[in-house]
Design a protein that fits this description.
single chain; 256 residues; alpha/beta; TIM Barrel; 12 helices; 15% strand; globular; binds 2-phosphoglycolic acid
Length: 256
């Protein structure tokens, strides 16, 4: 059975006091997660070690970074490499979030390189894709997402791909309160799985975890997770409220 994941993307939120309080509330709650269900918390870099220590003994809980650089080490002031993340026990890394593409000029070529780095150092990348509003309005979202997959992902071998998680995050749904409907999410997730199948074959397509992201919250998690090709979510705003995120984790454990 493929892995089902509730991932929290804290983005650039929380002071140390706030991050500790939020993490403690999640860490001190017990959830009934099955073998194939996981929770991944992606805080800002500065809180990764704290989160890792707090969650180390908690089964099914993992820590992820929100980004990594295209090189392993060197004179790149201010950057953080995949090898550094691996060295402190981080297991996941988000690659290609639309905010990084938009505000930091990350190109598909850079993302391909970041994926290589993450995989080379044993991290599991959560690769984000998704179309902007104008593309959705022209009903050109499938071609847009396929290009993103081709340009950043399809150079990987099947063995490498097996360690990648895909997150479909339509840009018009991120932070807007306007989530994709379960029908829209299911259609795109099935399309992504179809593209993986064309490139890598049926089994890799069946095995790959595809998360939905974009205004996912406690009130819509169950219906989104009920879609056959939606394997969990990448949650921004709602992951900053402990009660809300706990309900999302519970929705995941109940759904799959
Ligand atoms: P949101 O963000 O849940 O606040 O819409 C999702 C994301 O950007 O990963």
């Amino acid at each position: 059975m493929r892995k089902k994941i509730a991932a929290a993307n804290w983005k650039m939120h929380c002071t140390l006091t706030e991050a500790t309080a939020l993490a403690e509330r999640i860490a001190h709650t017990s959830f009934s997660l099955s073998e194939h269900q996981e929770v991944v918390i992606c805080p800002p870099f500065v809180y990764l070690m704290m989160l890792r220590q707090m969650l180390q003994q908690k089964p099914h809980f993992h820590v992820g970074a929100q980004n990594c650089f295209t090189e392993s080490s060197g004179a790149y002031t201010g950057e953080i490499s995949a090898s550094m993340l691996a060295s402190i026990g981080v297991e996941y890394v988000i690659i290609g979030h639309s905010e990084r593409r938009q505000y930091f000029g990350e190109t598909s070529g850079m993302l391909a390189r970041k994926l290589d780095m993450a995989l080379q150092h044993g991290l599991k990348p959560i690769f984000c894709c998704g179309e902007p509003l104008e593309v959705r309005q022209q009903e050109a979202q499938n071609a847009y997402v396929l290009t993103q997959l081709k340009e950043s992902l399809f150079h990987l071998s099947a063995e490498q791909l097996a360690r990648v998680i895909i997150a479909y995050e339509p840009i018009w749904a991120i932070g807007t309160g306007l989530n994709a409907t379960p029908h829209q999410a299911q259609q795109m997730h099935a399309f992504i799985r179809h593209c993986i199948s064309e490139q890598y074959g049926t089994q890799p397509a069946q095995d790959i975890t595809i998360l939905y992201g974009g205004s996912l919250k406690a009130s819509n998690a169950a219906e989104l997770f009920a879609c056959p090709d939606v394997d969990g979510g990448l949650v921004g705003g709602a992951s900053l409220k402990a009660e809300e995120f706990k309900q999302i984790i519970n929705a995941l454990s109940a759904a799959h």
